[in-house]
Design a protein that fits this description.
This protein has two domains: 158 residues, ATPase, nucleotide binding domain (Nucleotidyltransferase, domain 5, 2-Layer Sandwich), CATH 3.30.420; 167 residues, Nucleotidyltransferase, domain 5 (2-Layer Sandwich). Helix 5 crosses helix 11, helix 6 crosses helix 7 and helix 8 crosses helix 10. By secondary structure, it is α+β, with helices and mostly antiparallel strands.
Length: 343
């Protein structure tokens, strides 16, 4: 009986409301939902037909009266109404019937450079979706907590969170962000770069899902010991018919992804150049940790390490880091009230 009563009051959640994926951490249960940030709606009525993986499968394949949309762009809300509906579905999925009698408190991770207007949009969407109280925490802080960095110690810890729409880089000490930089570059821009490359070089039109598949299977940020090749299917823009061609990992790395990866490296350099001397000394030994889906790009740790001459580590579960961190601070309400971003 006590466990049931305890569960009733412990329905608080942490949310990583990402451009590419939305993850929800339930208190005492861990991550309970991991879905693409995609919503399929009926045109005109805006009735939600599918959310998450079911909606993602519809991208580029829907009939005229159904639209598959991504309501998050570059880490912030692009369509408040659809984002609210997506959050409603997410909160409904993770809350049992008994939990629905009591609205949850929600901790939501947001990009480091989010504006006041964007903060308000996030807060309002969550409140209308069913949260009774909303806290916001900066993504790099959430990621650092999620990967287990000692953020409360009087020493420098560095996190590089490469998400779908943004990359947040921060140096943290004594539970605060000493210096950070956010750039609206991430996995989505990598996909767009691959799409543009295929169109420019081969007159081949491919969709977002195909570009993401190329990135995952042969994309890299550093020279591979053995280069890979992949057959790509798309539509020839000149002849207007489906075709198949082969691309190499070297080509994708050097001609499609290089500029995007370099923007991330440059952002890391800017943060390092602005770090206090004592914390810089800490980073010589501690290095930095990569989180977010972009950390899974093959060789990006070696690329950053070579550029900075510092140790670079990829988190054990980089995709879950922000949601894990947002969820863990639910147990530290006093700390959360100090660290949360005003809404």
């Amino acid at each position: 009986m006590w466990n049931k009563i305890k569960a009733f009051f412990n329905n608080d959640i942490g949310i990583d409301l990402g451009t590419a994926n939305t993850l929800v951490y339930a208190r005492e249960r861990g991550i309970v939902l991991r879905e693409p940030s995609v919503v399929a709606i009926q045109e005109g009525t805006k009735r939600v037909l599918a959310v998450g993986e079911d909606a993602k499968r519809m991208l580029g394949r829907t009939p005229g009266n159904i639209i598959a949309v991504r309501p998050m762009k570059q880490g912030v809300i692009a369509d408040p109404d659809i984002t609210q509906k997506m959050l409603e579905k997410c909160i409904s999925k993770v809350n049992s019937h008994s939990h629905k009698l009591r609205k949850p408190r929600a901790v939501i991770a947001v990009p480091g450079d989010i504006s006041q207007v964007e903060k308000t949009a996030v807060k309002e969407a969550a409140l209308h979706a069913g949260a009774r109280q909303v806290f916001m925490i900066e993504e790099p802080m959430a990621a650092a907590i999620g990967v287990g960095l000692p953020v409360s110690e009087p020493a420098g810890s560095m996190i590089v969170d490469i998400g779908g729409g943004t990359t947040d880089v921060a140096i943290i000490s004594l539970s605060g962000i000493v210096y950070s930089r956010s750039v609206r570059v991430g996995g989505d821009e990598m996909d767009s770069a691959i799409m543009n490359h295929m169109r420019t070089r081969y007159n081949l039109l491919i969709g977002e899902r195909t570009a993401e598949d190329i990135k995952i299977k042969i994309g890299s940020a550093y020279k591979l010991e053995q280069e890979l090749a992949l057959e790509v299917k798309g539509r020839d823009l000149v002849r207007g018919r489906p075709v198949t061609l082969e691309v190499s990992s070297q080509e994708i790395r050097e001609e499609a992804l290089n500029d995007v990866v370099q923007k991330i490296v440059d952002t890391v350099d800017i943060v390092l150049n602005n770090a206090p001397a004592e914390l810089s000394a800490d980073l010589v030994d501690r290095g930095m940790t990569l989180a977010g889906g972009g950390a899974l790009l093959t060789g990006i740790d070696r690329r950053i390490s070579e550029a900075t001459q510092l140790p670079v580590f990829v988190a054990d579960d980089p995709l879950s880091a922000v949601a894990e961190g947002a969820g863990r601070v639910l147990d530290e309400l006093e700390w959360l009230s100090r660290a949360s971003v005003p809404g």
